[in-house]
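cron nightly-structures :: item 1 of 1
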Amino acid sequence: MISDDLNQIRGVVKEEIDSALEPIKGTLADHSKKLDVLWDQTVKLTEDITEVQETLNSHTVTLKQIVTNAEHNTDNLKKLDRRVHELEDQAGIVPPPELTLTS
């Protein structure tokens, strides 16, 4: 009799616990779905960031080349300006201010 009573009590307790856990299990399932969606978004963002980083690196290399070329062009412009000034001085030419390079 005690064994039957214990089994009966176990059955009732199990039913009560299962009943009490149902909403928790439902909430847990909902949260798991939401976490799966968030994880998928995180993976996509990580891929996007990698692509953006690659593009940024490419642009950085290009900008460094442009800066180097601009510095080289500036040096060449200064050399040409000196040459023109020397020729103008030798020829006695006074250029108008709008045609004079400023530093």
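cron nightly-structures :: done
The mean pLDDT is 92.
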